Amino acid sequence: MSASEAESDLSSDERAGLELIRESGGIHQSDFWKELDISSRKGSRIAEVLESLDLIKRTQAVYNGHTTYYLEPAARDLDFSMLMAGDMLSPFIGEEEINANSNAFSQWLMNLAYEEY
Q1: CB atoms inside a 10 Å sphere around CB 50
Q2: DSSP single-letter state for residue 75
Q3: Contact 55, 74 (CB under 8 A)
Q4: CA–CA distance from 115 to each of 32, 34, 37, 81, 111 (Å)?
Q5: CA 93 → CA 44, 51, 97, 104, distances in Å?
Q6: What is the Cβ-side half-sphere exposure of residue 54, based on CA atoms within 13 angstroms?
Q7: From the CA atom positions of the chain, what is the Rg in Å?
Q8: Rounded to whole angstroms, how far apart are CA atoms 112 and 109?
Q9: Which InterPro entries match (predicted)?
Q10: Long-range contact list for 18-22, CB < 8 A, 24+ apart?
Q11: Rounded CA gap, 3 and 78, in Å?
């Protein structure tokens, strides 16, 4: 099951929890349920569901002297096909200045054109 399929089956509380984890980049479970204004029991269950669907990573941690979990977003299903021409990645990835007349861009475009045929 892809991440987007798994997300479509989430409850509203689970969806809110996933969004909080993604927006924060990571949060301790002891703060997670407080931010969502739910009980610690419900927060634990939400984290367990999100982890079982591979939407988050849940790692045991010590925070403020207590054992808890650190919740961080898992890598999403990403499609890089629009950035590829054959086996070449677009030369514009990571570049601050784009030169459409560059040799690298011309080669990439040629690979893209040949891929069509």
Answers
A1: 24
A2: P
A3: yes
A4: 47, 52, 52, 12, 6
A5: 39, 31, 10, 12
A6: 9
A7: 21
A8: 5
A9: WH-like_DNA-bd_sf (IPR036388), WH_DNA-bd_sf (IPR036390)
A10: 18/50, 18/55, 18/56, 18/73, 21/50, 21/56, 21/71, 21/72, 21/73, 22/73
A11: 10
> CATH: 3.30.70.1150, 1.10.10.10, 3.30.540.10, 1.20.1250.20. Which one for 3-73?
1.10.10.10
CA 69, CA 55: separation in Å to the nearest integer? 15
pLDDT digits (tens, 9 = 90+) for 8-48: 889 999 999 999 999 999 999 999 999 999 999 999 999 99
Domain boundaries, the chain: 3-73, 82-114
The tokens describing 42, both together, are 């419900």
User: What would the pLDDT profile of 84-102 be if each residue is shown by its tens digit?
Assistant: 777 777 777 766 777 778 8
Q: Which two tokens stand for residue 86?
A: 């054959």
